[in-house]
Amino acid sequence: MAATLSGCGNIKSIDNKTIRIGVSVYDIHDTFITQLMDEFNSYADTNVTIVTYNAGQSTKEQNNQMQEMIDTGCDVICINLVDRTEPEHIIDMALKYDVPVIFFNRELTKEDLQRSAKFYYVGSDAVESGIMQGELAADEILGQESTIDTNNDGTIQYVMLQGEAGHQDAIVRSEYCVETLINKGVQLDRQGLAIANFNRTQAQSKIEQLISSNIEIELILANNDDMALGAIDAYLNMYGEDAKSKIPAIYGIDGTIGGLEAVKTGYMHGTVYNDKEGQAHAMYDLAMALATGSSLDDLGIEDGHYIRLPHTKITLDNVNDFLYR
User: Fold this and answer.
1) Are residues 201 and 268 in the same domain?
2) How far is it between the farthest Cα atoms of the chain?
3) Distances in Å between the alpha carbon of 86 and those of 24, 81, 117?
4) Which positions fall inside the Periplasmic binding protein domain (predicted)?
């Protein structure tokens, strides 16, 4: 399904022709992607047409959407890949029709991105987010007033809620988070690794299964806020009014509105802010520069292809700065 949207602001055109930007997202039900696209559309100029497609986690559907965006004359195409390991069809079409493509949020390989001077990536550094999540947890665990080690055995029993199997960002976030905790001197005992596909409902189901198995959980590390919120849902569903006293320390990544609200209320101990506003603005500004033939010099492009926005660690101390920005 495609939705045609236009934003507010100054009128932009090429020889009095409305600029048309096509966007295909891997799954519109991903909260972070939805909020990023909301920002992208609200930032857009009045006379720019943005057509957004939901691939519904289907590579075949996304390939069809790529062809439709080309056929309908999109000046620039933005792709949030369903599968970063299978971009060949999209790349081949872009090369055939000489269309500039901005890949975003799900990073394809360096070799694929370098196949055209008109290919770009806008996103963040997954390694940085994993490190920051590990630092957030380590700082609290090693703090003098920490209550995370509830059984006082000097080891933290933890569960990792990981995104899609084989997904590069999920693997990197998990690996560097745990590595950072260990390097900081935290003793860890993994009680479970649950693949929940970045999905809140799946995460709830996985954690409920672990709770029912009576394993001890002192810490839950989630690759994104939706899964962290799903973990909270599991405890609320299992324990009702007593849930808050049962919920372990939970950390997410993304800084979605729901995630920030959970930090503010204390259900989550922290998250890592993935700058959706910065990414949306950078993607739009790049798309407009490509569509109008304007200079790219001031857009912060690295290595000819990359725009990366930094992460920020979020705790109760600074959550309001991001929740109400």
Assistant:
1) yes
2) 70
3) 15, 8, 20
4) 21-293
Burial class (CB within 10 angstroms; exposed 0-12, middle 13-18, buried 19+) of 26: buried
* 130 & 109 share domain: no
By the 10 Å C-beta count (0-12 exposed, 13-18 middle, 19+ buried), 122 is classed as buried
Q: Are residues 176 and 211 in the same domain?
A: yes
For residue 220 the two structure tokens come to: 């839950």
Q: How far apart are alpha carbons 85 and 61 in whole angstroms?
A: 16
- Which of 242, 165, 166 shows the shortest CA–CA distance to 202? 165
Which domain range does residue 39 map to?
A: 2-123+276-294
Q: What percent of the chain has pLDDT over 90?
A: 89
Name the β-bridge partners of 4.
Answer: 51
Average pLDDT rounded to a whole number, residues 261-289: 98
Q: What is the pTM of this model?
A: 0.91
Q: Which residues contact 25 (CB under 8 A, 6 or more apart)?
A: 33, 37, 52, 53, 54, 55, 80
* SS3 state at 94: helix
Mean per-residue pLDDT for 275-286?
Answer: 98
Identify the DSSP state of 210: H
CB atoms within 10 A of CB 53: 22
Instruction: State how far the alpha carbon of 30 is from the alpha carbons of 34, 57, 112, 160, 280, in Å.
Output: 6, 10, 25, 19, 15
Over the stretch 227-251, which tens digit does the pLDDT of each residue have?
999 999 999 999 998 998 999 999 9
| pLDDT tens digits along 175-201 | 999 999 999 999 999 999 999 999 999
**pLDDT at res. 187:** 98
